[in-house]
Amino acid sequence: TQLLEQSPQFLSIQEGENLTVYCNSSSVFSSLQWYRQEPGEGPVLLVTVVTGGEVKKLKRLTFQFGDARKDSSLHITAAQPGDTGLYLCAGLDGGGADGLTFGKGTHLIIQP
Amino acid sequence: DAGITQSPRYKITETGRQVTLMCHQTWSHSYMFWYRQDLGHGLRLIYYSAAADITDKGEVPDGYVVSRSKTENFPLTLESATRSQTSVYFCASSDRTSGRRDTQYFGPGTRLTVL
Fold it and tell me: What gap in Å lies between CA B104 and CA B92, rounded to an integer?
């Protein structure tokens, strides 16, 4: 079973600060996705990265896929209270399995 | 434009009872998935289906049964509910046409409590 380790599990920072969330595995994934989940709702896809070393930007959010396709990071610049939520990384197995392998998530709270 | 819906949203049942969670999508996506979300475990795949009448086990299938007679529906049945099946259950769908960039669309979830 492939595992994705996310860190930190919980993060509470002040508005305007920067932060980075990490997603690491000992296994190679064909692609890595980042989701955001609000309370009482299902996860919503933010981004997919598929190429080793790929960097994608979504406004103040920067996503990076490691060169070996085993790890990824999410960096938020100048965090805002609206960024509060549960951030999940998920890997797609290139070996034939059809579901996503999720990390346990990072609970992010941005205080005004 | 309903997208993907789940019912019921909340369910309380007793140990040993049979419970069916419903999932319906309006996009005609070929793939559908069931996940459970638990504190300390994150989201884990229970079953998935590549098309009508084709289903396969995920990471945690024990105690669950699925069927898919129609493309748009993918019910999940707990044949004899146990307390360890208390969880939030999410259904998802995907058209699987984008390869490694496929997007899974999640329903709002069903919060199930087994007493």
Answer: 6
Q: How far apart are the C-alpha atoms of A30 and A28, rounded to whole Å?
A: 7
For residues A63-79, b (16+ Cβ closer than 10 Å) or e, as one string? bbbbeebbbbbbbbeeb
What is the tens place of the pLDDT at every residue in A66-88? 999 899 999 999 999 999 999 99
Across the interface, whether the CB atoms of B42 and A50 are under 8 A apart is answered no
For B19, list phi and psi in degrees, rounded to 5: -135, 140
Instruction: Supply the DSSP string of B72-111, one letter for each residue.
Output: TB--EEESS--GGG-EEEEEEEE---SGGG---EE---EE
CB contact under 8 A, A43 and B106: yes
The string of pLDDT tens digits covering residues B46-82 is: 999 999 999 999 989 999 999 999 999 999 999 999 9
